[in-house]
Amino acid sequence: MNVLIKIWRKPEAKVFLLAVLAYSTLVIFATGVNGGGDTFVHYQMSRYCWQHHHLLLNQWGKPVFTVLFSPIAQLGLQAVIWVNLSLIFFEAYLVFQIAKGLKMKRIWLAPFLFLTCPVVFDNAVSSLTEMICALFLILFIYWSIQKRFAIGSLIVSFMPFARSEGFVILGVVFLFFCFTQRWKYTPLLLTGSLVLNLLGYLQTGKVFWIFDDNPYVNTAITSYGSGNFFHFFIWALPVFGVGFLFVLYYSWKQLRKLWAPVTMDERGTPKKSYSYLLKEQIMFWLLLGSFWAYFMAHTMLWWLGMWASLGLTRVMFVVAAPMVILALHEINKYLDSIGDERKQRFTKGLIGICVFWALATNTLLLTAMRVPDAFGVAGVGAEEKVFEEACGWLNANGYSKKQTVYTGHIYVFVCLDIDPNDPKYYRSLKDYREAKAEDIIIWDGHYGPNEENTDLSKLESDSSLEYLHEFRPKIAFKTLNDLPFFIKVFRKK
Question: How far apart are CA 57 and CA 71, in angstroms?
Answer without folding.
Answer: 16
